[in-house]
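Repro:
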Amino acid sequence: METRQSNGLDQFCSLLEERPGLAILDLAGASQGTINFVTGLGHRLCFDDFLQHLDSSFAEGDFYENQSDPHRVEEFVRCALDFPDANFDVALVWDTLEYLTPSLLALVMGRLHAMLRPGAVVLALFHAQEQKAPIPSCSYRIQDRKTIAMARRGDRQRAQFFNNRGLEKLFQDFKSVKFFLTRDALREVIVRR
């Protein structure tokens, strides 16, 4: 397991300390480290393994072509995003949005926006390399307020690359987008609904 220092996570944790009792969604799946960290700050955590749902819904055959199959999309949304509207104050999205085709991404972004309460905060990561080569796919865990632990899950092809302008457009229905410069190949983003 690798670790990386994260200014975005540090700022994100500062936001968590402002209010106790927040409802947090973690799309990386269950992790004891994240559970301990979040509940230690007095928050509630709900988790879902978004990448596992992507694989079970779309991996048989052409992963990206399958994302346009309405039946598969409906099943994916039902399994991965079946939460009430205005249910969460915080979402840990990590790098999951990079693996969605534009049409599925638009649907997921609409669902994510609906599941978040006004003023909710999102932490997302995006790979900065522009080449079409597969990128490392990881499960992310919070080790401490400045450190992200990453367990490699293999390599994946991105559906699309996001530069800063693309990220602003992706989160256009949100109030603010803040970028963090990093020394490695990940771009950290904090978004407020």
